[in-house]
């Protein structure tokens, strides 16, 4: 009889795991809390901004962030087939070799760069298209030129071994359309006889009997009061850095004191579940232009370039990764008529990619309807403020270079001339937002406190794995979608190897 598996989450990692297990003959049930990716804005890169706060967004918010002006930060997460890879900018970054070697040296045995690199190469040459073969819109080319005038090298392939410099983004697109792992891995086999796809259904918890995970408790989103149970030989959580720890906590796997306070029976006292939460952060530098930039074009992402830069000379790898948008990313800021011009412009979003701050995710109650208490502890560590502020200052300088100031008539709208460089730290605290890269809440390692071991098995619970970005011990130097794909491939391999 074929082995059976439940995969929770049809995002980047879960879609890959599903395909690999289906191909290996497993009977697979893939559960997705959202619906199918029928929204045209998912597939049209120029419309990605429409997906925030839409039905396809979990629309999470943090608790008030003490060190970020007391603000509650919006955390967009994909609630749809494709997961957050259905909402993001499709940027593919292998990140730094030192990231993975650091994981291994800290106890994530088998996750060094020598093991990871071949997985990247296989993904990029197999099902998922990764390309920078597309024309830059004029403002994006000028941003590259201005960065060169600022003294940054042009890096034609930041995935070639060196991150530093300004680059055209490598993205997962084909013919001007988004391609994610749901589309590339699962859709070709969605009618397979050994695959069942369940959408619009949220997993409340894992069923654990005598220390073994035997299934999940399922709650229909349409009918929250109706729940059912599904059982399988393997249970794999791929619900992301917010969803996977929440399911574990509702299952009674987490810090004993917290669980008992909520009336949740403790299955395993695991203090690290939900801890170690961290994220990349952005802070906006917005310019208006005298020369029209133009509206977003169909089939063209509103971001096409980014750069990696070290805010201090003594750093071994870049700690900042600004991302550049062909539109003014006003967000909660207000364009002032008569001051900020007719509306054309661009944004150089300063970016922090090596955060030292660590937060945590906790439950407010035992039900799926109870909101998650998400605390990034954003900018709690002063080193994060210093690096992000340095990135903001750099973005201001780039925007003032001739390729933008002279050729486009670029004028800084925000922070604006009334904010001197000496006050940029305050600007950062008032404006920092997520880069959409939460990780770490189900940390892997070889120590007893790790949530999962290096083969992604939940410690103390047989038959249960977590395979998604939540297992990252520390965040990667760059966008986390590509590493999440590697985690999916390696996690699926571990399942198959351990099953013999």
From TrEMBL:
Domain Glucose-methanol-choline oxidoreductase N-terminal: 240-254
Reported cofactor(s): FAD
Gene3D superfamilies from the UniProt entry: FAD/NAD(P)-binding domain (3.50.50.60), Glucose Oxidase, domain 3 (3.30.560.10)
Residues binding substrate: 435
UniProt key word Flavoprotein: yes
Residues given in the record as FAD binding sites: 12-13, 80, 203
Record-listed E.C. numbers: 1.1.99.-
Keyword Iron-sulfur: no
Domain of life: Bacteria
SUPFAM superfamilies xref list: FAD-linked reductases, C-terminal domain, FAD/NAD(P)-binding domain
This protein's UniProt keywords: FAD, Flavoprotein, Oxidoreductase
Molecular functions (GO terms): flavin adenine dinucleotide binding; oxidoreductase activity, acting on CH-OH group of donors
Protein name: Alcohol dehydrogenase [acceptor]
Lineage: Bacteria, Bacillati, Actinomycetota, Actinomycetes, Micrococcales
